[in-house]
From TrEMBL:
The lineage of its organism: Bacteria, Bacillati, Actinomycetota, Actinomycetes, Micromonosporales. Keywords: DNA-binding, Lyase. SUPFAM superfamilies: C-terminal effector domain of the bipartite response regulators, HemD-like. This is Uroporphyrinogen-III synthase. It comes from the Bacteria. InterPro entries: 4pyrrol_syn_uPrphyn_synt_sf, 4pyrrol_synth_uPrphyn_synth, OmpR/PhoB-type_DNA-bd, Sig_transdc_resp-reg_C-effctor, UROS/Hem4, WH-like_DNA-bd_sf. PROSITE patterns: OMPR_PHOB. It holds the Pfam family Trans_reg_C. Its EC number is 4.2.1.75. Residues 269-361 bind DNA. The keyword Plastid does not apply. It comes from Micromonospora halotolerans. GO terms for molecular function: uroporphyrinogen-III synthase activity. Residues 269-361 form the OmpR/PhoB-type domain.
C-alpha cells in the first residue's frame, strides 16, 4: 500500500493548526479524530498585558525572552492598537533577545528585531540556564509567557538577581465544545485509536484533566496500545513525568511529527499467517495479502485476540471479554461472522465445535 497510515486512527488534540496536521495525516491514509483539548484566547484588551507593556517602556528590559511566534506577534499587534508599537520596538531593539524556537525567531525578525541566541532543544529550561550563565544580576528580563505563567522560569531568573516582567499575551481556555475531546478520551480508554498527537504541553495536561476518574485508564492505554506522539520534548514532558513512553521528532515541526508517526505506527503492527493468507493488523483494519480490509470495532477486537495466540482456541467467554460491556455470547458469534465477511477470507477463522474459535495456522 502506498498510504503508509491506511488503517490507522489518530487523534489530534491541537486547535490552531489542527486542519494542517489532519491534512498531513489524511494524505498518508490515516483516519483522523479532531478533538481540540484547548483553545487560545488572545489578550489584546487585557489590562495585565497593557500594564506589562507600559512597564517595559518605563523600565526598558535588558533581556527579552521570546517564547512563541503567535505570542510575540499578538503582543506587537496589541501595542499597535494602543499606539505603542513603535516605542515598544524601540526598547526591545536594545535588548539581548533570546528566542525559544524558530517560530519565535521568525516573529522577532518580522518585527524588525534581531535575536542573539536560541537553544537547539527549543526548551525554556535551556534558555533560562543560558541567561543565568551569562549573568542577569541587576538586569530587567521581559518574559513573554506562552499560555500560562511559568513560575519555575521566573523564580530561577529572580534567584539569579533579575527583575522579571511577565508578559501575558494569550491564555489557554477549554474548547468551546468539549464533546469531541470527551469522545477522544472514550476512544483512548477503549484503545480504539492507534495514536494521539500533542502539539503543546498544556494540551496533554488538559486531556488528562478532562479524563477525570478515567485518568489512570487513559494513562494505561498511552503506556501500552495507544502511541503518544508529541511535536517535541517540551510538549512531551507532562506525559513523560507520568511514565508514558512518547515518540517525538528531533525538531519540533508538524511535518517531522507526521514522519515520526509514519515510522513508528507500522512497526507496532501484528502480522500472522492464517488460512493460507498473510494478515497484518492495523488500527481499524486488517491488511489481507496486501489489500486493506476495514473492520468494525467488535470484529477487530476478536481478530486481535485470536492473533495474539495464533492456533490457540479461545472460548466464547474469553472473546466476550474483548467486546464492549453489556455484550453477550451471541454478540461474539455476530462479531465472528462479520469478521469472516470483512476479511473476505473464510478459512482464516475456524470454529472448533463446543470449544470456541481459533486462527487456522495449519
Amino acid at each position: 500500500m502506498r498510504e503508509e497510515l491506511a488503517g490507522f486512527t489518530i487523534g489530534v488534540t491541537a486547535d490552531r493548526r489542527r486542519d494542517e496536521l489532519a491534512a498531513l495525516l489524511q494524505r498518508r491514509g490515516a483516519r483522523v479524530v479532531l478533538a481540540p483539548a484547548l483553545r487560545i484566547v488572545p489578550l489584546a484588551d487585557d489590562t495585565d498585558l497593557r500594564e506589562a507593556t507600559r512597564t517595559c517602556l518605563e523600565r526598558p528590559p535588558d533581556v527579552l525572552m521570546a517564547n512563541t511566534g503567535i505570542g510575540m506577534r499578538g503582543w506587537l499587534e496589541a501595542a499597535e492598537g494602543w499606539g505603542l508599537a513603535e516605542p515598544l520596538r524601540g526598547v526591545l531593539s536594545r535588548s539581548y533577545v533570546v528566542t525559544r524556537g524558530p517560530k519565535a525567531t521568525g516573529a522577532i525578525r518580522a518585527a524588525g528585531l534581531r535575536e542573539h541566541w536560541s537553544p537547539a532543544s527549543e526548551s525554556c529550561d535551556e534558555v533560562v540556564e543560558h541567561l543565568v550563565r551569562r549573568g542577569v544580576a541587576g538586569q530587567v528580563v521581559a518574559l513573554q509567557l506562552h499560555g500560562e505563567r511559568q513560575p519555575e522560569c521566573t523564580e530561577a531568573l529572580e534567584s539569579a538577581g533579575a527583575t522579571v516582567i511577565e508578559v501575558p499575551v494569550y491564555r489557554w481556555a477549554p474548547p468551546t465544545d468539549p464533546a469531541p475531546l470527551h469522545r477522544l478520551i472514550d476512544l483512548v480508554a477503549g484503545r480504539l485509536v492507534d495514536a494521539v498527537t500533542f502539539t503543546s504541553a498544556p494540551a496533554a495536561e488538559a486531556l488528562l484533566r478532562a479524563a477525570g476518574d478515567r485518568t489512570e485508564t487513559v494513562l494505561a492505554a498511552l503506556r501500552g496500545d495507544v502511541l503518544a506522539s508529541c511535536v517535541g520534548a517540551v510538549t512531551a514532558e507532562p506525559l513523560v513525568r507520568r511514565g508514558v513512553p512518547v515518540s517525538a521528532p528531533a525538531r519540533a515541526r508538524l511535518g517531522a511529527l507526521v514522519r515520526t508517526i509514519v515510522d513508528e505506527l507500522p512497526r507496532r503492527t501484528v502480522t500472522v499467517k492464517a488460512g493460507g493468507h498473510l494478515l497484518t493488523l492495523r488500527g481499524h483494519a486488517a491488511v489481507v495479502d496486501g489489500e486493506l480490509r476495514p473492520l468494525a470495532p467488535a470484529p477487530m477486537a476478536v481478530l486481535r485476540a485470536l492473533a495474539a495466540a495464533p492456533g490457540k482456541v479461545l472460548s466464547r467467554t474469553a472473546l466476550l471479554r474483548t467486546l464492549p460491556r453489556g455484550a453477550d455470547e451471541h454478540a461474539v458469534e455476530m462479531a465472528v461472522a462479520r469478521l469472516r465477511v470483512g476479511l473476505d477470507a473464510p478459512r482464516v477463522v475456524q470454529t472448533v465445535v463446543k470449544r470456541g474459535y481459533r486462527l487456522r495456522v495449519d
